């Protein structure tokens, strides 16, 4: 017999899920303390991954003596992480040499690693924002993958079927198509949740499959398939629909990066400067109180899921119109799921999302260089990413390892005691 | 069964939590066979002290003596072994077990081969019940019992473990007036049987009625110790709060005007389809306060939720502020000039993770001056917050801290500040002062009366009979979904209203219709 007689059992499960999300986006410590934990988690992840790099090298095990083994291990790790760093940012001496060469193309090539980092980061910003926006409204959008694919397919379709328009019209049109179809992929689970209570985790996962297999289907129809091909690949989008890039300088970086930053600013403004964002945050933190205060909770869920889907759709459009120029199955390659990681690392904050996306973008761009320069496989980067998230999710562990003083103990009172009486 | 009378002494008990000194060198002596009342506001450190005594917390400093010998409690089982029993505010019972099973839990009697000896436990429960006036059926499932009966089970459980000292933590908070009276009688009979009792409360009347000695805690310290014969309620209140307090509510007679809220034949079904509000009709006029008494769970929650548009109306009509709001959305009802202080402020009143400033505009954020079109005006929201914080004396480090970090009393002030500052003609408040300290109760009551005197209609739902009587110009009672009254506050005595809350006095009827609800 509790003091709240009208608590329903279903509430507790929903509340528990909400608590998990809130623990991510409303950390119990200051911003700087959170940043410090992320940095230290990253360092810890690098150390742990170094162990994996070392033990996976047969030369270390087969070394004749300990000194040689240590030497080989050091070369493995420094080689791998050195490659990772130069792949993501560039090697300082090479960069200086290229910049001082006087030739524009050579100078531009100094920025190749950075360009690759930004190219990898841009779509992560979109999917990271998609998941973060959902978090704020108390929704766990796990269907970013499907929304990316649906959005990319739509953007590509507009890009290769509409002709005779200038870039000023066709590019926005293609982007809009990606956004709207992504929205549709978010709207459906939003509506189902608002009307029937169907949990978005289930419905969005299922819609991922719908998007993946619809893509296979469409890519084999004459409407989509590139003439003369039998494999599932679409026609190439018009140049008018392509995101402007620095291809002339042999850099892949394109305007999608600028769009990503602009959208991050827009999401920030939406969340903290508009009435809609206020509703998102209120409903996300406490739907009961929001309803009692007159907020239409169902409407907020539908709108938030739709916008979240739209943002993920933009990631798809960004890939198709900025990098690939044609649709292939699996072009998303897990971007939707990576968005969850980015949103978690970025604490559901648009600024944090951009930073986290740049970090992961750098890791991915660097990984290619690392594999080329050393025998370390790119997959180690996925291990690092996973470890970073694990350590970020367990801040107490990081604080214990580095003997940081907890800013505030769990449940400890800040203003007034809650245990008195 | 009592091994020996227990004399309990606490010397210099100190306990701090991060940032707060909860107990500061507390000395306390509980003589055998006395009722020792521990009086204090929320946050005074009463519960912390008792948790130390029960072995749940370890003191930073100080010692506990039982019959003159120092003891150290590592866990509650140590405390139980030394003859200390505790009845928690929230019962520690397993609903699907019978009374006898719950009572023997943790100290199971066994027969050879480890079989449970339920028979002996049953007999023991009956014997203890008869001896101390605690009637409980040993074979009843705990989930089928009323709150009062569950509390009796808790007391029997402690006695079964041969407790010489019984700690009762705010035991009357969940009881009807009749059940409270019974409990106080049980406490007296336990005392006469040589047991000592520590009775934790913030209700002055009960303290005066039953105490042999009263110790008052404030801010983690003992601020005074007295006996009922030598003190008055007003003195005790002043000791608790640290300043003179006006008990009761001072107010001029009501000047009722036009009908503002009219409820006609209202029927509401709960989530399971049961009738929760059964054909209820009443009116609230401008410039008067109508209070609704009743034990929690008799349809008051559903009544208010239906008026606010939060639950659907099955039959009947509701007119508020001149508009038919029977099928209105919560926003329409709020916007038509109805202020709402929800029963459960943590669940329905506040968004704990949003800032105090944001919570202060939780139902007006979309209106000018807080928003222009779709864009919020943070400066206006901030300015409004600073004004409200000053006007309603909300104790918060700043307007930007999360509302959930405030104390209960200050959280309620946030809700009250928000609702009282909108242009309203009708205020609906459920349990407006539940769990609050004396100072905040006094303040919120004053504001409610002020609202009435400005010509607003006020409807208050409360399970605290004192509050119902203190505020109501007209008083009604809800029992099993039906409403008695409202009648003029002078025309019914406290006892009559208490009887109506229990279903006109039929014994054991105090269980609400949905007592089995999880």
Instruction: Enumerate the spans of chain B where pLDDT stays under 50 for 5 or more consecutive residues.
Output: 505-518
Strand content of the residues of chain B, in percent?
25-35%
* Mean pLDDT reading of chain B: 86
Strand element count of chain B? 24
Overall tally of structural domains of chain A: 1
What spatial order of strands do you see in the largest sheet of chain B?
6-9-10-3-11-12
CATH class term of chain A: Mainly Alpha
Total of DSSP H or I helical runs spanning 4+ residues of chain A: 18
Distance between the termini of chain B: 35 Å
What is the CATH fold-level name of chain A? ABC transporter involved in vitamin B12 uptake, BtuC
Domains of chain B (count):
3
Mean pLDDT value of chain A: 86
Amino-to-carboxy terminus distance of chain A: 20 Å
Q: What global shape of chain A is seen?
A: globular
The helix tally of chain B amounts to 17
CATH architecture tag of chain A: Orthogonal Bundle
- Cα-based radius of gyration of chain B, to the nearest Å: 25 Å
Can you characterise this structure?
The complex is a heterodimer of chains A (about 425) and B (about 525). Chain A contains 18 helices and no strands. With about 425 residues, chain A is an all-alpha fold. In chain A, helix 8 (about 145-160) crosses helix 15 (about 335-345). With about 525 residues, chain B is an alpha/beta fold. Chain B has 3 domains: about 1-85 and about 165-240, P-loop containing nucleotide triphosphate hydrolases (Rossmann fold), CATH 3.40.50.300; about 95-160, no CATH class; about 285-310 and about 330-500, P-loop containing nucleotide triphosphate hydrolases (Rossmann fold, 3-Layer(aba) Sandwich), CATH 3.40.50. In chain B, helix 4 (about 120-130) crosses helix 5. Chain B is globular. Chains A and B meet through helix 12 and helix 13 of A and helix 1, helix 10, helix 11 and strand 20 of B.
